[in-house]
Amino acid sequence: MGSLPASGASDVPDLSISEDGGGADSGSDFEDTLWKSGKRDARTPLSRTLAAKRPRKDASRDGESLAERNPEPSNLFEVVRLAKSAMESVVDDWLESYKQNKEAGILELVNFFIRSCGCKGVVTPEMFRKQQNSEIIQQLTEQFDEDSAEYPLVLTTRPWRKFQAGFCELVTVLVQRCQYSIIYDEYLMDTLISLLTGLSDSQVRAFRHTSTLAAMKLMTALVRVALSVSLHKDNNQRQYEAERSKGPSRRAMDKLEALLEKRRELQEQQKEIENMMNAIFKGVFVHRYRDVVPEIRAICIEEMGNWMQSYSASFLTDSYLKYIGWTLHDKQREVRFKCLKALQGLYRSRELAARMELFTSRFKDRMVSMVLDKEPNVGVEAIKLLTLILQNMEEMLTDEDCEAVYPVVYASNRALAAAAGEFLYKKLLLAFFIQSELHEHAAYLVDSLWDCAAPLLKDWDGLTHLLLEGSPEEGWGDQQENALIEILVSSMRQATEGKPPVGRGPGKKVLSARERKAQEDDREKLTRYLIPLLPQLLAKYLEQLLAQLREVVEKHTGQEVLEAAAQALYVLCNPEFTFYSRVDLARSRLVDTLADKFQQEVSELLQASYLDEDEVYSMAATLKRISILHNAHDLTPWQLSEPCSLLLQRAVDTGEVPKQVVIPTMTCLHFGILWELARVSGTVPAQKELLALKHKVASFCSLCQSCLTDVDSSVQEQAFVLLSDLLLVFSPQLARGEQAALELLVYRPDVTLQSQLAGFLMDHVFNHAELVGSDDEDSEGKIERLHQRRNLLSGFCKLIIYNVLELSAASDVFKHYAKFYKDYGDIIKETLSRARQIDRDEWARTLLLSLQQLLTELLLQQGPDGVFGEDFREIRDLARRFSLFFGLHQLHNRQALVALHKAGIKFAFQEPAPSGSELGPLNLPFLEVLSEFSPRLLSPDKKLLLSYLEQTCQARLSPPQRGKRWNSLLMYRRSLRSLDDMGSAASRIAAPRPRRRPGSAAKRRRLDDSSEPGDSSLQLSSRLETPMLTSTALKSGRQPGSPAQLQEEEGSESDFMQRLSLMDEEEEEEEPVIQEESSDEEDAQGLDMPLSRSHSSQGEQLRDLFDSTILGIEERVPSVGEHPGDSGLTVWARLLLHMLRGWFYP
């Protein structure tokens, strides 16, 4: 037979279930009827087939696998797949073949459908003659390749999508070409329908899917033929009636006979076509519309919608509509989508919709509920369907049904909201917006209606005139005006900006040239209409607006409400506006009322010994309103500063003034000072004015300083915030540039105030009890408290950055960097970076001071044993984080880093060891903390610092103590020796170099042989992993820690700094300036890395850069007894310069 070896039988369950619930057999009764009625004995032997066309080799890559699997390709299949010829000519060629040999032609068509299923098998003439369809399908099923789930209808590449379109077109054109004679030959259609019905009952998905599509397309084509026959029949009937109505003398009997004969022929054709359609519907559709494959179900429903639209007389009945109604409940999105699209085609016609009243009443609830479908695109189609029902069957939708659609205009999905907007526009607009309490924003409503009602929404001229002419007597009240104003403003914004509301669609939309042109036209149109009308609108509503603002201020005490009212007044009080005088008058009246009330209440409070709750509430509310207005408006003419100062002084002296009154009082004084500063800054101030203002500033700062010790924390926080802001405003920055005349106003906080500010920070920001909060506090409250504490910390840090407080005050902040990193890490990190830019040396001393304070606190709280606990490890971790801020720019940080080490060494030996203690000096563990900074040192600096360490040990330790092997001292020594100790090993494992100098290997062997083993105890006792670094110091043949070398490097502190300055001068002469970079990136990269890892990459660079064999320098290593500051030091400097050039300028 020419087919490939058959695979195992499919295990897919039988999915063809009859309408009454019974299972379908492999062959139906209809199939048997067709076989009996078909003239199978009239078939003639195969004599001719279509001429084969050579396919292109690269026609479709995806088709190669299917084509290669068939050794006997179907010619018709290849023609359709290649899509080189018009389908009409392809069908005409096939019809020629069919007319000459029916069996060969039908066999070609049968194999086309088999091949379109992706099947390996081929129906041979012998099989076609001797076997029933069920037997042929069974044999093809056994030969089907179940290993691959691909078949032409499921492939999505472009060639196969073209084939799918060609497949459907072939069936349609075939029926169209055969509609007048061949489809009635009782052979072609009977055989084709029998085959497709049998294949649609198959357990193989490819057979069912392909045959169902072919059968449904065949049915659709037959429906069109049936419609054509029906039209011809009706036309024939009219001709017959017209001819028969003529008189006997004019009546043509032969014409009547011909018309009668034609009518009988048309009736037979109609009956045969109806039989064919009935066979397809009962044999295929009834079983497959509920197939387990959603694509098959969707095909059935989609084609049924086409039948109903094309031939409504036969198919638009409840017996067919029920299938679409049932499928509205399908679980698959695609099937529900096809149902709604099919119904839209029916309801789009008022005539067809009128015939669906029973169906609509039965399934209306389901269609309404689908508005809220979980799939937005299904919801869109459901709303479009309801919109069509509203247009053509308005009485079918109740108010309750419509109310289910209205809220969707506020949906976040724009397509869904736009569909609901169109529905709403058809029904109502302004009444809905007024009556609904679903949303407060008209922007979402306007955006929903923009696609369908843009011309109405853009009628700004009509809308504004409606606002100007409307009156309550005409039924146009405040509610309608407010709604119209909101819609008007939203439509203006939509037209001029083109941005969807928040949450609906992308934030930025790229406009096309046409959209940009339309937007420009809308802006021009809006300007032309609105500019002349704005004064009239403002004149009508200004007095009402000012009255409402006054009412809001006098009635409300909420912070946000009062701030919004004050801001609105500020915007209106622009001297450039023509109505400024009216607004200024209204503002003055409002402030007069509040000031008079405050003056009366403050006098009563100062004289009374007790105030009840109502009096306290009234005064606090009045002060709160005044303080918020004072923020946006200059209330200096009302002279509120003096009574506020008396009130605050009373609170400080007696503590009897409630906090509700104290906080707004401080705020009023603060804003009063700022308004006076703004006034003197804009003119040439007199000395008297400056002195008066300076006195106010000093007095207010003194009062706020006293409030820092208040019993109420909210008063303390307000005093801290106001002090921070005021100290920043009156800092030395005030008198810079053209404001030099304000030098007299510069206020510098004394030591006591600085100490109190730092103490407040410790109690309210870096306090674990404050940070955790109470268990009863909700998460939102905890977030708000954290936000407040972050503001407090930011205010203090700004004082440091802008040189209001000494840089050393930052130690109280820096020492909490690691412990509070989660809550304040970003603020402290930014402060560290800014402080480094101010003064690197002082910054380094501040870092050291932070670490020293932490260690001192630890020793005071836990004693000497505290260095073995977790708290000491946290101090080391903080030091590691600090070291990352020194970054790779070692030249910039060199002097500060060396000074930090020296000061740290002094601190470590500052306190002598307790008598009888074996632990060494009290602060000696600080050397472990200091070792975290050692990897950032240059190799020469390590050598000199090591010498300085030994000198300090000699000076601070007694002879018996010098022989002690304390871990902290050993670890710090090892961190300073790391380049020398590991250099030899690192040289041996270095990557192979492309070129070696002669004798370099021998030289290394001599160095290895001559090098001493060193202090092996360091490696055993140290807790810090030695970085893999090396330097040219190994060439000396002695360890830098050896007694001989230590003796060489003994010298005074001035000698040490002289050597350091010598190297700095040479670097400045030969090295170009390197631009400083922020350490943020370095810190982010190395913050959470293990220490050994962050050093390794630097060590690998230094290892090669310090190797003289690569640099090509024959340095002279100082001999024993030679001073290191001689020529050997010059070699050190040159080597360092070479290293830096290679590092920064690779």
UniProtKB/TrEMBL annotation:
The keyword Coiled coil applies. GO terms for biological process: cell division; chromosome segregation; establishment of meiotic sister chromatid cohesion. It is found in: Nucleus; Chromosome; Chromosome, Centromere. Residues 285-370 form the SCD domain. Residues 1013-1034 have a biased composition (Polar residues). Residues 1063-1085 have a biased composition (Acidic residues). InterPro entries: ARM-like, ARM-type_fold, Cohesin_Scc3/SA, HEAT_SCC3-SA, SCD, STAG. GO terms for molecular function: chromatin binding. It comes from the Eukaryota. Residues 1-70, 495-519, 983-1100 are annotated as: Disordered. Its main location: nucleus. Residues 57-70 have a biased composition (Basic and acidic residues). Residues 249-279 form a coiled coil. GO terms for cellular component: chromatin; chromosome, centromeric region; meiotic cohesin complex; nucleus. Residues 993-1005 have a biased composition (Basic residues). The keyword Zinc does not apply. Component of cohesin complex, a complex required for the cohesion of sister chromatids after DNA replication. The cohesin complex apparently forms a large proteinaceous ring within which sister chromatids can be trapped. At anaphase, the complex is cleaved and dissociates from chromatin, allowing sister chromatids to segregate. Part of the cohesin complex which is composed of a heterodimer between a SMC1 protein (SMC1A or SMC1B) and SMC3, which are attached via their hinge domain, and RAD21 which link them at their heads, and one STAG protein. Belongs to the SCC3 family. This is Cohesin subunit SA.
